[in-house]
Design brief:
Radius of gyration: 19 Å
Shape: globular
Strand order of the largest sheet: 5-4-3-8-7-6
Oligomer: single chain
Strand content: 15-25%
Length: 273
C-alpha cells in the first residue's frame, strides 16, 4: 500500500494496473474488500453492462469469486442486474459515494472560473485530476466554445505515464512513491517501459526548466496537452491540471509559450489560497 503522501498508446492503456498483490502483504489489508472494490473499478465509460465472465477477465479473479462479489454488491446497491441482458451495471450507491467525494473538494470551486477562462481562450479542455493507482481521474473539467474537444469529463480516467497531467503529478511525488509506481509500470508493461520511462524523465526535465511539461501525441497520437502539479493549500494532497485538445488546435509553441505559463500561474494562485 502506498504510504507517502507528504505532498499529498491506445491499444493497451497504461491505467490497467494491478497493485493488489503488493498491498495484500500488509497485515491490516482486507483482501475481500479490495476485490469488491476492484469489481467496481473495472467498469469503464461506455460499458453498457458486464457479465461475470467479463468482470473475471478484467479483474483476473476466479469466476466463482466474482459471482459472490457481484451478488453482494447488488444486494448493497452498488451494482444493478439486468435480467433481460444478463449483465451488471454500476448502481446508485456508487454515484452517492462519488458525489460525496466531489462535494468535499473545495478546490474544484476555486479552480473552476480560472480553468474556464483558459479553456475559452485556448478553445480546448482544461481539467483538474488526482491519482488513482496508475491512473489520473478527472474531478473537474472545463471546455472551450469550439465544437471539437476531447470527449472527457468528470470521472474520466487517463494513464498517469503518458499524459501531461500524470507526468506532472509524478514529478512532485516523494522519490519512494514515484519509484514504487515506476516499478509497477515496468512489471506490467515490460515491452513499452523504456519509452514510458524516457517520456517521464523528459517531462521531469521540462518541469525543472519551465514549471510545466508537455505530452505531444504520447497518449493519443492526435492529442497535445500541457500539465502542471497542484498542491492543496495545506500541502496535504497533490492534484494536477492540464490543458489539452486536438493537435491541430493546440500547437507545441502555443502550449509552451501561452497555455503552459498560464496553467502554472493558476496552480500558483490556487496553492497560495
Amino acid at each position: 500500500m502506498l504510504k507517502s503522501v507528504d505532498v499529498g498508446g491506445k491499444s493497451a492503456p497504461l491505467y490497467e494496473d494491478d497493485l493488489l498483490d503488493e498491498d495484500a502483504k500488509e497485515r491490516q489489508f482486507v483482501t475481500a474488500l479490495a476485490r469488491g472494490l476492484d469489481v467496481l473499478r473495472c467498469f469503464r465509460p461506455g460499458d453498457v453492462g458486464l457479465g461475470n465472465q467479463e468482470i473475471a477477465e478484467r479483474t483476473r479473479l476466479p469466476k466463482p469469486t466474482i459471482s459472490r462479489l457481484t451478488y453482494t454488491l447488488t444486494r448493497l446497491g452498488y451494482l444493478t442486474y439486468s435480467e433481460r441482458l444478463g449483465v451488471y451495471q454500476l448502481g446508485s450507491g456508487v454515484l452517492a459515494l462519488g458525489y460525496a467525494m466531489l462535494s468535499g473538494l473545495d478546490i474544484r470551486e476555486r479552480a473552476r472560473p480560472l480553468m474556464q477562462e483558459l479553456a475559452n481562450d485556448a478553445n480546448a479542455s482544461v481539467a483538474l485530476g488526482t491519482r488513482d493507482r496508475l491512473s489520473m481521474v478527472y474531478v473537474e473539467c472545463c471546455k472551450g466554445p469550439g465544437t471539437v474537444t476531447l470527449r472527457l469529463d468528470v470521472g474520466s480516467r487517463v494513464p498517469i505515464a503518458t499524459t501531461a497531467m500524470g507526468r506532472s503529478l509524478l514529478s512532485v511525488l516523494p522519490e519512494t512513491e514515484r519509484s514504487y509506481l515506476m516499478d509497477s509500470m515496468r512489471e506490467r508493461f515490460p515491452d513499452r517501459y523504456p519509452d514510458v520511462k524516457a517520456g517521464i524523465e523528459k517531462a521531469m526535465e521540462e518541469m525543472d526548466r519551465h514549471g510545466f511539461c508537455l505530452s505531444l501525441g504520447d497518449w493519443q497520437s492526435d492529442v497535445h496537452a500541457v500539465g502542471v502539479p497542484l498542491l492543496s493549500a495545506d500541502r496535504s494532497a497533490v492534484f494536477a491540471l492540464n490543458c489539452g485538445g486536438p493537435s491541430f488546435i493546440l500547437s507545441p509553441d502555443y502550449l509552451k509559450n501561452e497555455a503552459g505559463p498560464r496553467l502554472a500561474e493558476i496552480a500558483r494562485q490556487l496553492t497560495a489560497r
